[in-house]
Amino acid sequence: MRKTLIAGNWKLNGSISSITELVRGVSSGLQSLNCEMAVCAPYPYLQMVSEQLESSRLKVAAQDVSEHDSGAFTGEVSAEMLLDFGCSYALVGHSERRSYHSESDEQIAEKFNRLKLAGIVPILCVGETLAERDEGITQAVVSQQVLAVIEKFGISALSDSVIAYEPVWAIGTGRTATPEQAQEVHSDIRTLLASFDENIAAKTQILYGGSMNPGNASSLLAMPDIDGGLIGGASLKADDFLAIGQAA
Ligand code: PEP
Questions:
Q1: How far is the centre of ligand 1, averaged over its atoms, from the C-alpha of 172 (Å)?
Q2: Which residues are catalytic?
Q3: Atom of ligand 1 nearest to the CA of 94
Q4: 165: closest CA among 119, 200, 212?
Q5: pLDDT digits (tens, 9 = 90+) for 62-118
Q6: Superfamily (CATH H level) for 5-247
Q7: Measured between alpha carbons, how far is residue 62 from residues 27, 53, 85, 243 in Å?
Q8: Phi, psi of 229 (to 5 degrees)
Q9: Which residue CA neighbors atom 1 of ligand 1 most closely?
Q10: Phi first, then psi: what are they for 55, rounded to 5°?
């Protein structure tokens, strides 16, 4: 039985005071929730959020990681550093990193592996653009993004990892995939994993991301292969984030 995971991605938002308030708000409503919850904070706030969440069920996560472990890589943050700051999860391959920072599948696979080596659960983000969906190549694009990790590090790399299906056209646009559209891709991903290892396929949490909000969360999370959500905009308001947790 897969547990539901609801992860908030704060992106480039927040300040010491607004994040303190947000964490307080989310923490105060956690007791009634059944699912796992995590927040992906900007790097400079990781330590503060970790301290605020000490012994809380709300887990701390990062939005990215370096593919290097140390050395002359100005501005980079390694997986071991994230571990030092109490991160349980980290995103890799978010579409904003893929497009604004030209991250390749190969680089994302390396980042994924660094997290695994450090004992941090990677959340591998995959998803097609609108042009790719219109071209009918969604399955091919998403499969290739997942295969990039499997081909480099083997299917065992996917055990104890999370995949987030995020159609690029639904991120921050207010446009959501229908539950059926999302389920179809989630099921394709699980079938792909099962072609390598049925046990890993059955255990892997596959999250949906793309304008999930309190109004559409229940219908998306009701689908058999949707095991949670990666939430951008709606994770910046404690009430909305908790309402999504409630729906789970
Ligand atoms: C995201 O950035 O991962 C995301 C899903 O954003 P939003 O919920 O705002 O579409």
A1: 5
A2: 94, 166
A3: 3
A4: 212
A5: 999 999 999 999 999 999 999 999 999 999 999 999 999 999 999 999 999 999 999
A6: Aldolase class I (3.20.20.70)
A7: 18, 14, 10, 22
A8: -140, 150
A9: 232
A10: 65, 20
Question: Pocket of ligand 1, candidates 231, 240, 244: which has the most ligand atoms within 8 Å of its Cβ, to mutate?
Answer: 231
pLDDT band at 172 (very low <50, low <70, confident <90, very high): confident
pLDDT tens profile 18-47:
999 999 999 999 988 999 999 999 999 999
Cα separation, 129 vs 219, in Å, equals 23
Spatial separation of the C-alpha atoms in residues 77 and 55, rounded to whole Å: 25
Element (H, E) at 62: strand 58-62
Distance 137 CA to ligand 1 centre (A): 22
Ligand 1 binding pocket (C-beta < 6 A) is 9, 166, 171-172, 209-212, 230-234
Amino acid letter for position 226: I
The structure's pTM equals 0.97
Probe target for ligand 1 pocket from 91, 211, 235, with the most ligand atoms within 8 Å of CB:
211
55 falls in which pLDDT band (50, 70, 90)?
Answer: confident
What distance in angstroms lies between residue 94's CA and the mean position of ligand 1's atoms?
A: 10
